[in-house]
Amino acid sequence: MPIRVTLLAERDIPGAVAAIQEAFADDPYNNWVFDKTRFDPQRNAVSLSIRCEWGMRNGIFHVAKEEGSDEVLGVACWLRPQRAGQPSTWHDWFESWRLWLNQVGMNLWYGRGGLNVKRYWVWKAAQSNVQSAVWTDPLGYYFLNIMVVVPKAQGRGIGRQMMKAVTDEADTKNTKCYLESSRDVPNIQIYETLGFRFTKELECDDHGTAIKLFASEYSQNYPPGTMDTVRSKSPL
Ligand SMILES: CC(C)(COP(=O)(O)OP(=O)(O)OC[C@H]1O[C@@H](n2cnc3c(N)ncnc32)[C@H](O)[C@@H]1OP(=O)(O)O)[C@@H](O)C(=O)NCCC(=O)NCCS
């Protein structure tokens, strides 16, 4: 059956949340930032639903399904590019407070659900450092915040189709794209096949218990390269 990529609708949210939880069940970042003995899947589902609602209003949130089926097989959430020096709007301000209040409500109701708050902030700081170093294009970057395909549907071209839905838009605006992956193998290679170049590692170190994330960039002007070529040119 052909795959259709559409904007996330309210009724897709439970399926999108389930797909994200399944695809990230053994993700290195999740394993580092959550204490798995105290992990609360219900709290995590509420947190992801809040993120979906926010993404529907503020980002580009896609789901992939087979034609004629309601089952969510893939999810991709992008943040739109922000031009250098572009001031935040009242809408952005209102939306960030709305997100924060929803998260506070969730934390009061469910607690932290195993989230290691200190590690969360270690990650945020590493992310901010790397983005300040590599986001040099004044047009800004489409930022791929979430990209998953459920395990049973991986390797069938769904990731490529979801990626193309936004890289095509980026091409028309001559704008770059950016992502961070919590696995180097096989993701760096997959993303290179999709036109990205590995750019920089994010080291998240909590007193010796560390993980690495891998930042990559896309531009229609980059020719597809091999991992070795890209690594040898990377400003690590
Ligand atoms: C990464 C992910 C989104 C890719 O989606 P996908 O639907 O499996 O990818 P596709 O089938 O569209 O493949 C895209 C390209 O990568 C290649 N590829 C796929 N799996 C690969 C693998 N394990 N190793 C090397 N290349 C691979 C494919 O051949 C394809 O290239 P082609 O079209 O030239 O043949 C998906 O595997 C996934 O959800 N992984 C787990 C969660 C995750 O790590 N998400 C990323 C967080 S940033």
What does this protein look like?
By secondary structure, this protein is α+β, with helices and mostly antiparallel strands. The longest helix has 21 residues, at 90-110. The chain has 8 helices and 7 strands, in the order βαααββααβαβαββα. It has a 7-stranded mixed sheet, with helices on both faces. It has one domain (3-233): Aminopeptidase, CATH 3.40.630. α1 (13-23) packs across α3 and α3 (41-58) packs antiparallel against α4. The protein has helices at residues 13-23, 28-33, 41-58, 90-110, 117-134, 158-172, 187-193, 227-233, and strands spanning 3-7, 60-66, 74-79, 141-149, 176-181, 196-206, 209-218. Helix content is 44%, strand content 23%. Bound molecules: coenzyme A.
Quick tags:
236 residues, alpha+beta, Aminopeptidase, seven-stranded mixed sheet, binds coenzyme A
Estimate the mean pLDDT confidence. 93
Q: Rough shape?
A: globular
User: Per DSSP, what share of the residues sits in E-state strands of 2 or more residues?
Assistant: 15-25%
Number of strands: 7
Side by side, the strands of the main sheet go 1-2-3-4-5-7-6
What is the count of distinct domains? 1
CATH architecture: 3-Layer(aba) Sandwich
Per CATH, the class reads: Alpha Beta
Order of helices and strands: EHHHEEHHEHEHEEH
Taking pLDDT < 50 over at least 5 consecutive residues as the criterion, the unreliable ranges are 226-236
CATH superfamily: Gcn5-related N-acetyltransferase (GNAT)
Figure out the total of helices. Answer: 8
Bound small-molecule species: coenzyme A
